[in-house]
Amino acid sequence: MGKFKDLTGQQFGRLTAIARLPPHGKNTALMWACQCECGGSIVVRGTDLTNGHTMSCGCYRKLTKNVPNGQLRLHRIWANMKQRCGNPKSKDYRYYGERGIRVCDAWSDFETFFYWAMANGYKEGLTIERKDNDGDYCPENCIWITAARQQSNTSKSRRYRLYGKEFTLTELCRLYGQPRSTVESRLQRGVPIQEALKTSGRYHLNTKLLELSDRLKELRAKKSELDAQSKGVGEEIENVTIEMIDLMTTEELTSFNRNGTTFSLVTQQYPAPEPERKGELWEAMKANGFEDLFTINSQTLTSTLRELIEANEGVVPDWLSGLIKIAEKNSIRVAKSKKY
Hints:
alpha+beta; four-stranded antiparallel sheet; three-stranded antiparallel sheet
């Protein structure tokens, strides 16, 4: 006897195995009580579950007793799928059957398609979509998606080649200023793409415009890439500068030459008023001959302090003591070495 396989909790199509039932009478097959997504229940052989023979409680048959197939939305999806793949008179045949796309043999029967749809996420409002746009309609290649998403994936949105370039229909309609619905209607009547895009309006496309638009797109992409690189280089420059400042400060080195370039340690002072003594600073500046200042900002304070230091033998006057604070910032100046 083969090893017992517990199916409890596993899903098979629309059925979920709830509990194993003991053998009854001469029947030695493993039987399982199953719950269906429709709310019904059924007892099924384990082998019929695992091999895909039974995937529902029979709700399809119950449903079609009350609702004819032709009134089911799923039936319309199935019928339209077969029409566009197998009927040359269908308006969409050129997009499907003519391209070699077929409906698999398993789905030639609607009941089989119905069970697959119910077991694979079908809900009202969804539509069938092929994962591989060049592949057939079959269980391995199909999923259920929203109509909006399918519209963006449809082969009618394929790329068209004009003026040596490839465009989607949306891109061409935007360039020509034509409503997409108008162009699609013309294409469905068999009008060539260039004729379908024609307009007597103010939009006229030529090769030069296309070339310029492509070049602009390339340049914008290149600029974005260079901006990202520039940001990274800027961060590296800042890190190297900080490390050089630390080393030159530690070694008390103000400058050095290397390969014709002079690297100098520069210290700049940035004076600022003490936050709580701005009023006192303003009065002190007026009292000491700077009453012509309209305001005190970083620029006026820096230039004024420079004058005061030069006039006071290189030091800050005593009357400014405690009224300002001076921050220092070190940097590295890079210049070409002088030739002697």
